[in-house]
Amino acid sequence: MITTAFAPTALSTADNLADALADPGSVWPNGRPDGGLSWPQSLAGGVSGIALLHIERARTGHGDWDTAHTWLTASLHGEISAAANANLFFGVPALAFLVHRAASASSRYNRLLERLDTAAITVTRRRLAKAHSRMDCAGRPPMEEFDLIQGLSGLGAYHLSRHPHHEITHEVLAYLVRLTELRPGESGLPPWWMDVGPTGAPHPDYPGGHGNFGLAHGIGSALAVLSQAVLHGLTTPGLSLAIERICAWMDRWRHGDEASPWWPGHITAQQAAEQHLHQDLRPRPSWCYGVSGTARAQQLAGLALGDRARVRAAEGAILAALRDPLQQAKLPEIGLCHGMAGLLHATWRMGTETDNPEIAVELPQLAARLISALNQDDHPPELLDGTAGAALALHTLGTGRAPAPHWDTFLALA
Predict the structure, then answer these.
(1) Closest C-alpha among 100, 107, 71 to residue 92
(2) Which of 11, 303, 337, 383 has the greatest count of CB atoms below 10 A from its CB?
C-alpha cells in the first residue's frame, strides 16, 4: 500500500466529484446526446462507467450502496447486447464486469451476475471460434479480434478476474498463446500484425498495416493478461513462451537508455522493414498508447518471468516520464485513457506492486496537477475520458487501496 501526505486532498476531491455525479438525472438531464439503447451499457462513455465509480466507493466504505444501486439499475436499462459488438467495454461482458464488482460486496447481485456471466461466456466462445477460424486460414487479425477494448484480451481480463480456473479462461489464454506463435513462411512481422491502420480500418498512410504496442488496441493488452495469468498461478500451456515472444518484439523496439526506456505506440510496415524509428515518434505518456500502459505491461511481464531487470526498466520508464516536464506537458487532459488520471493510476498501481519508494514520491505532484486541471474547466462525466475516471484514480490514491476484484482490470492494469 502506498500512502502519502496528499491522500486526504485526493480523497476529498474524489468525494466532491462523486457527489456531483450522484444523480443520473442531474448528470444527463436531457438524456445522452447520442440517444438510443446503447449508452447505458457503455463502460467508457455511458452510465455503466459512472456506476463503477459509485460501486468502488461503496465497496471501500466511502460511498453509499443506494447511489451505487441507482446507477447500476440505470446501466441495466433497455435491451442488453450479446451480439458481435459486445465486449469488455460494451454490452453483456461490460455489465458482467460491473456486477461482479458489486456482487463481491453484496449477495443481492449474485443471481444477476450468474445470468450475465453465462451470456458473457457465450459471447466469448463465439469470438474464439471466429478467431481460430481466421488463424486456420492464416489471415492476419483485425484489431477487434484481440485488443482490450473490443476483443479477446478484454474478455480474457474479465474471465481471469471473475473465475481464473474456469475452462473459458483457459480457452482465452490458449488463444492468446496461439496469437503469438510464428506462422510458417512468415515475413518477419509478428503474428499479431494487423493489415489496417491504428483506427482499425484500412488507411492510405498504412499500406502495409501496422504493429500496435498499446494497452487499448495493441499487443500490450495481451501481454498484461498473459502475465496476470502466470501471476495467478495458472498453468495453461505456453503462457511464459508467449510472454517471452511479445517481450522480444517490444525489446527490439525499445528506445532510450537503461534508466529511461520507452516504446512506440505503433509502427508501420516501412519502419519495420527499415528497423528504424525516429526519436520524435515517442508517444505521450498516456494509458492507451504511451508509457502509462506499456510500462505497466512490462512490469507485469517481468514479475511473471522473474526478470528483475525488466521490472526495473519498466519502473525506470514511468519515473522518467514523471520527472520530465516536457513529457508531462504532453498530457493536459484529465482522463484515464488520454490524460493525467491514467498516468496517475498506472503510477500508483506500479508503485504498489513493488513498494517502490521512488514512485511514491512522484504521486502528490501529479495528483495536484490533475486536481488543478479539474478545477479549471468543465469536463464530461464519463469514465474513460471524464471526471468519473479522474475521481476513481484520486479515490484510489486517497484510500491507498483497490480491493479485488480490481476496478482497474478493465484497463489491464490489474
Answers:
(1) 100
(2) 383
